[in-house]
Amino acid sequence: MDKEKTCCFTGHRPDKLPWGTDESDPRCQRLKRSLGRAVEEAYVSGIRRFITGMARGGDLYFAEAVLALRESEPDITLECARPCETQSDSWPATEKARYQSILDRCDLETLVQHHYDRFCMMRRNQYMVDRSSKLIAVYNGVPKGGTYQTLLYAMKRGLAIHTIDLEDFCQ
Fold first, then answer.
1. pLDDT per residue as tens digits for the range 143-157
2. Would you tell me how many other CB atoms lie within 10 Å of the CB of residue 42?
3. For 3-169, which CATH class?
């Protein structure tokens, strides 16, 4: 694995997105297009490997954008870094199916640890950042939570950061 050619993602779950789970909302559609452009720009800059943490919301949007680009750029690889075996157990059935569909199409699935504990998401985020040179973030500007902590860790590790400001999609 070439860290210089690897990009990971951090972003919010549906409870922090202005449209929640309504992906037909025009703001969500705009965000997905923006995320697709960010993935394309990363590819053009030399990124070939993308890592997603597989959480609901932004992580799944990112994975789907990578898979869409891979249809025309077959040298792209998608790694799904799962924090624990039970990540999707409590999700709605449609989200579980979406999660499994992404896992079925990814190039590499990494299980960071077997069992859930309160630090497994943080370990997953650090795993992704430690193996990347670039981070794409969908961030609402609030200085707390996993997305914020991942951004801070990526800054400390010297990653190039492309931030998509969630506030731009609130109108």
1. 999 999 999 999 999
2. 24
3. alpha beta
